[in-house]
Design brief:
alpha/beta, globular, 2 helices, 8 strands, 120 residues, 4-stranded mixed beta sheet, single chain
Length: 120
């Protein structure tokens, strides 16, 4: 039985990524090992881990074909906080599928989408 999913993403700049997620997004760094090149961060019920690239994989920069979608009940407030601090992919908008959402890029170029049910 699966209990939860915690993404593990690569970053060449662990310190910068920890700073972005804690200072800009408001996450807490729960555990960090500079020797291992790894960190675990969380906010509320959301957890994410970052690691330095694996030397055996030979990937020159972080890549992900999708996005991280973060559900919230405060999308307006989060948009107001982030819109001038992050590279915006698309601004706050209400979509016909029932979500009010926006998307920004983190310091690695990963796409972060923040969404709230537009019926709330």
């Amino acid at each position: 039985m699966l209990r939860k999913l915690t993404p593990m993403l690569e970053t060449p700049e662990l310190a910068e990524t920890i700073s972005f997620y804690t200072k800009v997004l408001g996450f807490t760094c729960n555990n960090r090992s500079d020797e291992m090149g790894w960190a675990h961060l969380s906010m509320d019920d959301v957890e994410i881990m970052f690691s330095r690239p694996n030397e055996h994989r030979n990937i020159p920069q972080p890549i992900m074909s999708g996005s991280l979608y973060l559900y919230t009940d405060q999308v307006e407030e989060i948009w107001a906080k982030l819109k001038d601090q992050c590279a915006v992919c698309y601004p706050l908008e209400t979509f016909e599928y029932g979500m009010r959402e926006f998307a920004v890029f983190d310091n690695n170029g990963y796409l972060l989408q923040f969404g709230q049910d537009s019926n709330e």
